[in-house]
Amino acid sequence: MNELMNLSIKDLVEYIKNSLDILVSIKLGEELEKYKFSKNDELTPNSARDYEKLLQKLEQNIREHIGIEHQLKIQCEKFVEKIGVLEEERSFFVIELVSIIFLIIP
Q1: 94-105: per-residue pLDDT in tens?
Q2: Do 25 and 69 touch, CB atoms closer than 8 A?
Q3: What is the distance between the alpha carbons of residues 98 and 95, in angstroms, rounded to a whole number?
Q4: Kind and range of the H or E element at 106?
Q5: Nearest to 71 by CA among 84, 79, 57
Q6: In the Cβ-directed half-sphere of 18, how many Cα atoms lie within 13 Å?
């Protein structure tokens, strides 16, 4: 936890993005594990329909995850942009503060 506190804001945003990518990958892997078929499973018309439903469900999950990932990337870009603006404002205020200090202290 202390290591995270020492990271820059940009690195922290990247860390969060990577963590979310890993969590999405793990979740998708867990979903696929539930529905593994062995070579000895017989493919009947009912199992073919079930398999097709499963594929459709997984495709929908993938589309949802892609949408979420896209939203997260947009959010990360907005945060990085906001960080840039805040850093510029901070620099401006530091310059202002220094100039005020030099006016007060001869």
Answers
A1: 999 888 888 887
A2: no
A3: 5
A4: none
A5: 79
A6: 6
3 state SS of 36: coil
DSSP codes of every residue in 42-84 = ---HHHHHHHHHHHHHHHHHHHHHHHHHHHHHHHHHHHHHHHH
What pLDDT digit, counting tens, does each position of 68-89 carry? 989 988 998 999 999 999 999 9
pTM above 0.90, yes or no: no
- Give every CB contact of residue 43 below 8 A, 6+ residues apart in sequence: 51
H/E segment holding residue 12: helix 9-34
Tokens of 41: 């499973």
The answer to whether the Cα torsion of 72, 73, 75, 80 is positive or negative is positive
